[in-house]
Amino acid sequence: MASARISARDLAQIAVFAALIAALTLPGAIPTGALGLPITLQTLGVLLAGAIIGPKKGTLAVVVYVALGAIGLPIYAGGTGGLGILFGPTGGFLFGFILCAFVVGWLTARLLPRYPFWPALGLTAVGGILSVYLIGIPWLAVTTGTPIGAVALGMVAFLPGDLIKVLVTVSVAKAVHRAWPGLITPRPWGRRRDGSSTDATTAAVDA
């Protein structure tokens, strides 16, 4: 059985991606749409964390980022931080980032070692974007007293930017996994707990 302990290398990767997410927030936020929600590059960092270092380390990197912002470091959108932001109207998107990194990392592990571009693009788009919105939209609706349908409609304006971030993520992740294989342990579809494959497709991917 593989060790569940986190190595020094793992910790370094987690720290690097937590810092990357924070750094991608620094260029600033642009309020857009009727709800005035800010567009930042945070989501790009979250997607990259899941797609490059996987579900466990990627999720931990986002948790570290969210926790550092919660204690007051000005690393959230707009140079903000603190529990008031974390549990405020946009806090659901921050919690959605955690789910996003896990889902994208989980899906990426099942596309490796080949990591085909178009399947990766589709799964990362659906899994990553939906994960953020799944928590962020209801949270925003409840905290602002806005009908959830109106909030969901307002999110449509953000989809083009989100899709561009997904495209960048998959392009970068494909190059990284080609250059440095082994950052994420492949978990092909249909693999049982004992490591055996449930179908011929899985065997072909492993070969």
Automatic annotation (TrEMBL):
Domain of life: Bacteria
Residue intervals passing through the bilayer: 12-30, 60-77, 83-108, 120-142, 148-168
UniProt keywords, alphabetically: Cell membrane, Membrane, Transmembrane, Transmembrane helix, Transport
Any one cellular-component term (Gene Ontology): plasma membrane
Subcellular location: Cell membrane
Keyword Repressor among UniProt keywords: no
Keyword Cytoplasm on entry: no
InterPro entries, per the entry: BioY
Protein topology in the membrane: Multi-pass membrane protein
Alphabetized GO MF terms: biotin transmembrane transporter activity
Entry's family note: Belongs to the BioY family.
Protein name per Swiss-Prot or TrEMBL: Biotin transporter
